[in-house]
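Sorry, any thoughts here?
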Amino acid sequence: MGTPGNPFSLASWRREVAELYAGMRNTAQRDPNLAAAQFRAGRDSLIQHHSESPFTADVLANFSGVDYFPYDASWRLTGTIDRDVERYHFQIDLAEDGVLRCTRAGTVHFEYQGNALSLSVFWMEGYGGGLWLPFGDATNNAETYGGGRYLYDSIKGADLGAGADHSGDTMLLDFNFAYNPSCAYDHRWSCPLAPPENKLPLPVRAGERAFRTA
């Protein structure tokens, strides 16, 4: 989230992000590791060259790529969606972006190495809407950004895809594509962060690491 500046360049950014995710989804059906490598290279290029990059010019002058954990296939999971949940509403003040209104749309349940886990999935209200899945974990404030990371932000085109059966009852959770909100790079951005209920009790060493300028 952030001040759009030029709506046409922002639309271009969203389009290119969506294309990156579409390419990833296609390749991941054959080789998830290769899909992650290609996606990360494309994202680095977009960050470095696009006018809507969340990075400042002085940081970009020495930019050598976003820092990620090595791809870990054990963090590519499928969760089961439970829609029978309290659909509470809340709003987040995003300064110049206005107020973001969200509704809890469901809970996705999954298992990692014998641990039963769950995350709430939210629907961003407004024209068109969009799924939003932020999360925190035990690496925050050390190995990863303190405010947590995102898995889905479908308004921006960040969409990992449906679960294997395409029924709408499952959800792909590939934490290797977890990424930082823009406010992790520059304080001029206002970003909604993961609510306490979405803090996982274990470390997720997959996806994007904490951003450091040096």
